[in-house]
Amino acid sequence: QATLKERLAELIPAEIQNVKETRAEHGKKSFGPVLVDQLYGGMRGLPALIWDGSVLDPEEGIRFRGKTIPECQQLLPKAPEQVTSLSKDWAARAAIPDFVEDILDRCPPTLHPMSQFSLAVTALNHDSAFAKAYQQGVSKKEYWQPTFEDCMDLIAKLPNIAGRIYRNVYGRGKLPAIDANKDYAYNLATLLGFGEKSEFVELMRLYLTIHSDHEGGNVSAHAGKLVGSALSDPFLAFGASLNGLAGPLHGLANQEVLIWLRKMQSKIGQNASDEAVKEYVWATLKGGQVVPGYGHAVLRKTDPRYSAQREFALKHLPEDPLFKLVGQIYKIVPGVLLEAGKAKNPWPNVDAHSGVLLTHYGLEEMQFYTVLFGVSRAFGVAAQLIWDRALGAPLERPKSYSTAAIQKIFKDK
Ligand code: CMX
């Protein structure tokens, strides 16, 4: 049975050929007009990147390698032997260097967990196989191999980093050892102190899968790809992803949702009427703030990642009061956002639901939530970094314009 690396080595030559043929056939074709508004408007909808692991449809949501979330739920895991050998490989690579432990142990508990996470991941570049191979003059054709090793190390070490941050910041005792006979989600849950709760472990399996990838243009994915394009190693590249994920319009939204819900409860009480909730939502908008967990730059329907978590909650915690509040909000917020008339998508995204599930099982420290998002996002970013190096993706360098230049270009047109 082939290892993951051997399988990749089999697939790469055909994919190089596939890209070559695609470029030969379509390379000179136009991909639609670029509007000046797209330059000012955060490049929304601008075709600009290749990303193979997943594709996001505005109506349908994410597909991972062509499969929807429900299809993945049906199909995974289909290869128990491969899963076991991969779990063992990650367990064998899981230890983090002493100096990275020291860095984390010296962080003040007031430093946000995402900043600590980013520091630790960046520091892993100390042992990067890619950086070392590059210094030794490795050929371009071989780039993907040390990148693969770094990506596997990165993924493998994240549970120890996340667990250490959680226990340091929240005083939750000593970190246990990784169990080489258990899967990644179980080990992550155990390092956080929740391994005994089988439902939480199951939640981690769902959580790690649905947060892993959301095509290439979102801030964390794009930041990783961009930095990787300078041949910065996967630790430096993924550090950039984490810094982007830590923003409130992106991954930090899951923390913001919980803070917003708690504030709402303290303001209008536990079992508030629909009217009172609606008023609170309006007050948020009138205060010039966003409703966290709602809206999306690409999606125009309810995020299937939200629906998958809602299904989990309906099965395992239908009576949880906070889950009921999330359900109540789901009925109210889209109407308010539509009436307010600004948001292009009034429906909930992944972050509207995740915190409630974690809270239910006792992981109540909301500042930590985005760290879990980051652990999962490593899978998508790392996979693309390997493919980018295998396919020889070039340095990213789009053209920027000044407003004066735009005015000049269109002066007489
Ligand atoms: N609440 C209030 N206003 C919102 C809104 C929301 N949830 N969603 C969008 N809007 C506003 C925008 O702020 C923007 O206002 P201005 O014109 O004053 O700048 C206007 O509606 C148009 O925005 P849009 O085109 O619909 O949305 P964008 O593509 O610009 O932004 C996103 C997308 C996600 C940043 C935005 O919907 C938002 O801020 N949502 C709340 C934060 C959130 O949940 N982020 C997590 C997204 C998922 C993830 O990455 O993890």
Automatic annotation (TrEMBL):
GO terms for molecular function: acyltransferase activity, acyl groups converted into alkyl on transfer. GO terms for cellular component: mitochondrial matrix. The keyword Isomerase does not apply. The keyword Transferase applies. Keywords: Transferase. GO terms for biological process: carbohydrate metabolic process; tricarboxylic acid cycle. Pfam families: Citrate_synt. PANTHER family: CITRATE SYNTHASE, CITRATE SYNTHASE, MITOCHONDRIAL. This is Citrate synthase. The gene is cit-1.
